[in-house]
Amino acid sequence: MGKRKKSARKPQGPKKREPLPSIFACLFCNHEKSVAVKLDKKMGIGQLQCKVCGKSFQSGINYLSAPVDVYSDWVDACDIVSGAADNTEGDTVPTYRGRGTLPEKEPLDRFAGQDADENDDYDEEQYAEE
C-alpha cells in the first residue's frame, strides 16, 4: 500500500522586493514626501534637502549605504541636538551608529571618597612570614 500521489504545484517565481524609499517626511515642517536624498558614492557623501522649508543635511556614506541611512543619521543628529538643548532628561542616552566620534567621558572611580584600608580584604597576620 502506498500513499496517494499529491498534485504537482507550479514553481513560484521570485518574490518582488519593494525598493527602499528615497523621499521622506521633513522633521521640521512635517510635510510628507518633501525631503529628497541624493547619494554621491564616489565622494562618500549623502545629502538630503527639504523642498518646503529648505533644511539640508550631509553625512558620510559607504558603498552599502542607502537613502534611508542618510535619513536615519539626520534623525539621530536631531535627537542628539534636541537632547543637548533639553538637558532636563538625564535618563535618555543618544544612539550611536558607528559614525564620527563619541564625546569624551570621565572615567569612573569605584573607590572615590573611601580609604584604601576599608576596601582591603588582605589579612596581614594570616600571611605574615615567620
What does this entry show, briefly?
This protein is 18% helix and 15% strand.
Descriptive overview:
- The chain has 130 residues and is of the alpha+beta class.
- The model has no long low-confidence stretch (mean pLDDT 79).
- Strand 2 and strand 3 form a beta hairpin.
- It has a 4-stranded antiparallel sheet, with helices on one face.
- The protein has 2 helices and 4 strands.
Question: How do the strands and helices of this protein lay out in sequence?
Answer:
Layout: E1 23-24, E2 35-40, E3 45-50, E4 56-60, H1 67-85, H2 116-119
Antiparallel strand pairs: 1-2, 2-3, 3-4
Structure classification:
alpha+beta
Strand order of the largest sheet: 1-2-3-4
Instruction: State the separation between the terminal residues, measured CA to CA.
Output: 90 Å
Write down the overall mean pLDDT: 79
- Beta-strand level of the residues, as a percent range? 5-15%
Features:
flat; 18% helix; alpha+beta
